Amino acid sequence: MKKDTPVVHHLKDYQTPQFDIVSVFLEFDLKPENTNVTNVMQVKNLNHASLMQLDGEDLELKSILIDGVDITQKCEQTAETLQIPTAGLDTFELNITTSVDPQGNTALEGLYRTSGNYCTQCEAEGFRKITYFLDRPDVLTLFTTKIIADKADNSVLLSNGNLIESGELENNRHYAVWQDPFKKPCYLFALVAGNLECVQDTYRTLDNRDIDLRIYVEPKNIDKCDHAMASLIKSMKWDEERFGLIYDLDIYMIVAVDDFNMGAMENKGLNVFNSKFVLAKPETATDVDYEGIEAVIGHEYFHNWTGNRVTCRDWFQLTLKEGLTVFRDQEFTADMLSPAVKRIEDVKRLRSNQFPEDAGPMSHPIQPQSYIEMNNFYTMTVYEKGAEVVRLYHSLLGEDGFRKGMDLYFERHDGQAVTVEDFRNAMADANNVDLVQMHQWYLQSGTPVLSVKTEYDSVTKKLIVNCSQNIPKLADKFPPLLMPIKIALYSDDGNILPLHPYEGDMEKIVVKGHEAILKLSHKSESFVFEKIEVEPVVSLLRGFSAPVILEYDQSNEDLAKLVTFDSDSFVRWESIQTLALKEITRNIAQLESGQALELSNEFTTAFEGVLKDSSLDNALRALALTLPEMTYIGEQYQQVNVDAVYHVHRWLKIQLATKYEGLFLEQYLQLNKLNEEYHYQKTDIANRKLKNVCLQYLMLLPHQIKLGEQQFNHSQNMTDVLAALDSLSHTDSLEREACLESFYRKWKDDALVLDKWFALQAASHHIHSLAHVKELVKHPDFVYTNPNRVRSVLGVFGRLNMLGFHQPDGEGYHFLAEQIMKLDAINPQVSARIVAPFTHWQHFDGERQTLMKKALQSILDNDNLSKDTYEIVSKSLSLS
Ligand code: B3K
Ligand code: ZN
């Protein structure tokens, strides 16, 4: 067990800063193992405090001067702080010199080395690993940064803002000075130095300024930047058009690095990216990679306003910038590709990842109330549920009202560090409405359950929609949430019906065309529609208008009808998913009671309908033909029977493949154009998606394995090559071995492509998959210091390899726990993420629960466990 119990930070303890750091001058003398950092701050003592406590970790202190006088001996240093006497000083210059070891920094937080270059990562609290500072987001400072380094190894020296000076020095060294004209919190500081090359372009802003755009990469990757640059330009244009937000500096730089703990970082004017979200060419990157790059480039760019110009008062407000920026990047991707497809993909992600998080021991509100390690709270909840909550404002206020709210938010708070209440107030005041109830969404954790019952009276022609909301784990002890529920009504033959709310309900039902929003604000509430001439087919929670679990007992006939005619793509997709889910759960029950499995006509008719309906967008068809993920099926049970879920899921896929082999093959052959040039373009993406879904089904039939091998050998783009290899990886065939081997030989020197090779095997349903994964961590190309490689093996194994991880003898758990302990000593942030699958132990059968807890305990028993991993593991076990 970790020796000292780590400190818990609480939102309720927030206090305004005692000091203002008006400006800072930083000088870095870069050397791999011993970089000197001189930090000269102009400080204002706002409350005549007699002591200034700065944050600092893993720093070697050299000297401290106040107004030129050495006071080093008068200061107190602890492992995480430095206390400086400031009695009688109102304004002063504080000069601190420290040194750090970038080469030895494998945690990848603060200043570190990657592929022989220098880079930084400061959010959330990494700046304190660079120098002593008030490392909190509400201290905004003007930064000037001087970088000195060897010329041979560091042709490029970068920091935030504008380059104001550069020159040569003795001993083959050189320097550059950067000045950022915008005040910023230190988490947005960045420094990069190394031998990098850049691609350049220009963007002319709406107010006619030319912005210098640069993407820096290692020279070998210079041919893989075009898509990233195009994405940046699209993002800049989109933010001007949609939100009237224009870029502010004269230069925007992106640097791609191979070793990075997350996706990317929005440092002011100098984004640092995981190379996975920059580098792409058709031979190496899939459609999913291309889409990811566009989305992440957009996300970081959008942070320039939502995050940088207006930032967070404290880290409990993280969703203020992240939820809002995810909402913005979702809207961007929707506009670039397909709004319908994007919405469905986002809902799938939310349900498969955020819902389980919110049902487990790490469940927290989008505004957490406490944390041990802030990095553990960059979660699906803060990001994705946070984005859903922003979407609620959008649904309630409409596009124009939302835009008015955003405009007022920037007008009031540009240059400030604010709270989620400030955002809500801007939305409310701009629209002259009361949104106080929205705050419950920030306070409550757990996924709300929305139960709906509809009653139609054929005599009065009235439809009553009875809604009630509940958060099961809070029993009845919660104030109700405000939920916009989108609804439309159809006749049996698919005609959309006009909506006439009952007069007394006009306030809480907003009708727009043929769709209405029911504004549910009580625990139970009824909404009445009149003049409904026929018993309607109800299309409910259109566009997934609130992040809830919907309980609405709809007949299979109605679901099948919605699959064929609903104009809302989400409900159309959701209806076939519900039919599939019913099919699967019914058969799981059959299996558990020792009865034969059987396919129902209701489901296959709907499935066949989609398979044959060429009028439907191919991307939507691909989504509709994909069965619910195993994790989502598992979510339907208090305690999941892993083996039964796997068995029935596979059985159903094989049944469908067998029954519709001819149709799948016909569709596959029609779409399989091997020599066509790759374009990242909506229709092409949709076609590849549908083709590869067909291939997945076909490959379940042993005599069709050759089809995958052919696609693997003859495709020119990574989307198709990987789809084929993925299907092959689940088989027990010679083709599998041959293709994996040839893929490795071809791509062993391209780290991002090799990650895919590792990931496929880590997720494989092959019978010997656990043994294979154990071999993978011994592979010469497996390194614990590279987060992408670790995630592609250990992350994927825990999350996606249901059979291997949950092997009944507990060997999968034992293996992963050992790996986590090894990793924790190297990179705690990554290790804490890999623990996640263990945290759902209470969701499995008794024997597995015991084994999972045993594995967690073995991690906790570790003497030097990081606080990152400690927080997740201890919270998981405290439930027992
Ligand atoms: N703001 C960063 C995430 C920082 C994570 C710190 N552990 C990237 C993003 O959300 O845009
Ligand atoms: Zn973000």
Automatic annotation (TrEMBL):
Residues 34-188 form the Aminopeptidase N-like N-terminal domain. Coiled coil: none annotated. It catalyses: Release of an N-terminal amino acid, Xaa-|-Yaa- from a peptide, amide or arylamide. Xaa is preferably Ala, but may be most amino acids including Pro (slow action). When a terminal hydrophobic residue is followed by a prolyl residue, the two may be released as an intact Xaa-Pro dipeptide. Pfam families: DUF3458 (PF11940), DUF3458_C (PF17432), Peptidase_M1 (PF01433), Peptidase_M1_N (PF17900). Belongs to the peptidase M1 family. Its cofactor is Zn(2+). Its EC number is 3.4.11.2. The keyword Metal-binding applies. GO terms for molecular function: alanyl aminopeptidase activity. Residues 446-553 form the Peptidase M1 alanyl aminopeptidase Ig-like fold domain. Residues 557-877 form the Peptidase M1 alanyl aminopeptidase C-terminal domain. Keywords: Aminopeptidase, Hydrolase, Metal-binding, Metalloprotease, Protease, Zinc. Residues 228-441 form the Peptidase M1 membrane alanine aminopeptidase domain. It comes from the Bacteria. It comes from Thiomicrorhabdus lithotrophica. It is an enzyme of class 3 (hydrolase). This is Aminopeptidase N.
